[in-house]
Each structure stands twice: as structure tokens, then as C-alpha cells.
Design goal:
Blueprint: E1 2-7, E2 15-20, E3 27-32, H1 47-55, E4 59-63, H2 74-92, E5 96-105, H3 107-115, E6 137-141, H4 147-152, H5 159-164, H6 172-178, E7 190-196, H7 204-216, E8 221-226, H8 240-253
Parallel strand pairs: 3-4, 3-5, 5-6, 6-7, 7-8
Antiparallel strand pairs: 1-2, 2-4
């Protein structure tokens, strides 16, 4: 396996890490880490997952991004740029980008959900791109995908308000172009949502509300609820939920 860092901008937080198996033209999996957009959490949260996926034949682009110590919309711009560059550079690294998936956990799940709505954003919105990539599969684990609801419920001890720079009533124009629950999702990417019944960090209601939103827009999406799981089993490649995700990736991307 080849493993190396690659910048996508000049800031120290603007980089990603490649995990590329020694196979011919492996499919691409892009990983967006969580952590409620707090600067203390980095892409090393996903190291075990990335190593495991590479060991199973997937090329992984795990992205870092600037978090809420930088004003909105820095995080959104970073994530969009990182994903676009990963798709561009993957071919140079011998990766088959015609087979691709996007993964996100927690706040990273919300960011991944937002990525799948970039085509429908107003032209002047951060990350807007009429030609943004679709994915064969988008897997969201315990996503913070309903920001307005998350603000009102004070998820993460008010992390949504800090990230957005205010409550929905304070900066409605920001929520209008950032909250996946308020955006038109790209129907070309199948979604799989995963959530544990004992998750106290991000309630199952976030996934349930976002699933209803996806179905209202005709998107192929399913929610699998894992009895007894908390918020963190997905970070362990030996867990049941990681196996479910890996099996879904295998069906979608591997011959």
C-alpha cells in the first residue's frame, strides 16, 4: 500500500491523505471525518478505517479541513476543494474514478450530505458547482444532516451555532445554503444511512429526518439502525457497522 499526504491549498489544514492498495485501478472512496467541526479533531480519527478499506482493495482519499475556528464558510469551501482535487488527482495515482463512493461520520456525515447538493446551490453560494461529481454510493453514519434542528436541540453543546456563526434566525441565509435538510439532493447518488440506537452524541432523529427529506426528493436511500450501537463503533473496522458499510462498498464498487 502507498500512503502519503497531498495538499489542496496553502493552509496547514488544507491537505488529505492517500491510502492506495497495490492493485490495478482500484475504486475511489473519499472519507470526511467528524468531530462537531471542532479544531481538536483531525483526520487521524479515520486512520483505522482508511487502512482497513485499503486492505480490502479501495483507494482512500481522507480529507482534512479547517474547522469552526475559521469563520463560515471556510469549512464548506475546504471540503468542496478537497473533494474536487481528490477526484482530479486520483487518476494520476492510478485510481479508477468511474467507481467512487463518499463516506462521512457525524459532522463529516453532514458535510458529505452537503456535498451531494452542490449542483442545486445558488451560483454565488460556497461550493456551488453545476457539474459537481455524483457518487455510486454515499454512506452517512450518524450524520449531523439537519442543522436547523440540531441548532434548536443544541447538539454538541451548541456546536452547530458556533460552526454557522449564529442560530437559524440570526443567519438564515447561511443555513439556506449549508443545511442538507434544506437543500435539493443530487438524485444520482444512492445513500445509505447508518445509526446506532444508543447514540447520545447525534440522535437517530437526525438520520430519520434526513432520510424523509431524501425520499421526498425521490432519492434512493435506506436507513439501517444498529441496536445497541453508540456513536463510535464506526471508527473500529472490526465492528458490525463497519462490516455493513464495507459490504455495501464492495457491492457498489468492486466487481
Amino acid at each position: 500500500m502507498r500512503r502519503f499526504l497531498e495538499p489542496y491549498g496553502e493552509d496547514p489544514r488544507q491537505f488529505g491523505e492517500w491510502f492506495i492498495p497495490e492493485t490495478d485501478h482500484p475504486p475511489l472512496v473519499i472519507v470526511v471525518h467528524g468531530g462537531y467541526w471542532r479544531p481538536v479533531w483531525r483526520l487521524d480519527l479515520e486512520e483505522a478505517t482508511s487502512l482497513d478499506l485499503a486492505a480490502h482493495g479501495f483507494a482512500v482519499w481522507s480529507i482534512e479541513y479547517r474547522t469552526y475556528e475559521f469563520p463560515w464558510p471556510t469549512t464548506m469551501s475546504d471540503v468542496a476543494t478537497a473533494i474536487d482535487q481528490g477526484l482530479t488527482e486520483a487518476a494520476r495515482h492510478g485510481i479508477d474514478t468511474s467507481r467512487r463512493a463518499l463516506l462521512g461520520h457525524s459532522a463529516g456525515g453532514g458535510l458529505a450530505a452537503w456535498v451531494t447538493s452542490r449542483r442545486s446551490l445558488p451560483a454565488d453560494a460556497p461550493g456551488a458547482d453545476l457539474h459537481a461529481a455524483a457518487f455510486d454510493l454515499v454512506v452517512l453514519h450518524a450524520p449531523v444532516a439537519c442543522l436547523e434542528i440540531g441548532s434548536r436541540e443544541r447538539l454538541g453543546d451548541g456546536a452547530v451555532d458556533t460552526f454557522m456563526g449564529g442560530r437559524p434566525e440570526d443567519v438564515p441565509e447561511r443555513y439556506a445554503v449549508t443545511d442538507p435538510h434544506a437543500l435539493v439532493p443530487d438524485p444520482g447518488s444512492r445513500r445509505l444511512l447508518l445509526h446506532g440506537t444508543e447514540d447520545i452524541d447525534v440522535p437517530v432523529s437526525q438520520s430519520e429526518a434526513y432520510l424523509a427529506h431524501l425520499h421526498a426528493h425521490g432519492v434512493d436511500a435506506d436507513l439501517t439502525i444498529i441496536p445497541g450501537d453508540t456513536h463510535y463503533e464506526i471508527l473500529d473496522p472490526t465492528s458490525q457497522v463497519s462490516a455493513l458499510r464495507r459490504e455495501a462498498l464492495t457491492r457498489a464498487l468492486l466487481p
